[in-house]
Write the structure tokens for this entry.
Amino acid sequence: MNVDFNTLFPHLVMSFSLPNFTSPRRTPWGGQKIATLKDVPAQTIGESWEISAHPSFPSRLVVGDGELSLPRLLEQFPCQILGEKYLTKRGRQFPLLLKLLDAAQNLSVQIHPSDATSKKGEAGKEECWFILGAEEGAGIYLGLTEAASESAMRAALVAGEDVSKFLNFVQVHPGELYYVTPGTPHAIGAGVLLLEPQQSSETTFRYFDWNRKPARELHVERSLQETNWSALRGQAFIESVRRVHNPNGSELQTLCEAENFEVYTLELGAGKNVSFNLNGLFALLTVVRGTVFVSGLEVKAGHSVLLPALLLNAELAATDSHSQVVITSPVV
């Protein structure tokens, strides 16, 4: 399908109109909060793949009587979307994936490899969690406790025991960000709603799935191999990976400077206009509260857009007194 970029996206902001929700079979732990946030009919949604070029769930939009996917658009408009700077250094592969995630039940205890430890056919996975909502007492399991050891973890896994006792449990609150490095065991606990910027990868190894039925495949040996046993432990580890958004700030706040991406947030009051310089790259923007006009395109809470390099600067204007956006940019 041959189309003109400016005709498809007259505001030069890429919005994908078709829902990209996982099925309850794929994410049996999902809840109702994503549907509420997006103001769509009630349904169980574990994940919404907001901006994705991954073949499992690519972002799509309706064009005439057909559809166009983000991978197809990248084939047709690589320079307009990614920018010459990115293309020169990294090539055409889209590096990022952006999800909304709602855990009505605990997610599996899992781990991701890094680019360095991933094997042929795999991809490293670096991610972070920006907390959007949490029920009272809800939290995450992240990193190893002081008492955790490889031998004790192995024995518990072989016996089918609950290994969450070896992980730090942290009650979470909206506005917090947690950086999940490769090699870190983790699980999102029941009652947490979050935004998850990450590398575009599905490489995941499960330690433990809470003895859920039907049983899903576990990867005990590989999980143990990928674990960074020399990382910080306990509260020292949590403090090293947690950042807290300042709700009273009026400037762009940097929440995460990872190896493959950076994450920022910005509070916007009614009538306030802010220009975000893309620096010759692309970025992913999610409105997490209120309604924001992005270079003239209205974007409501719970929705995300891709800011292509062609845009140069994204002009942000809020209509609500307490609007907020989260922006993810690639590192080149």
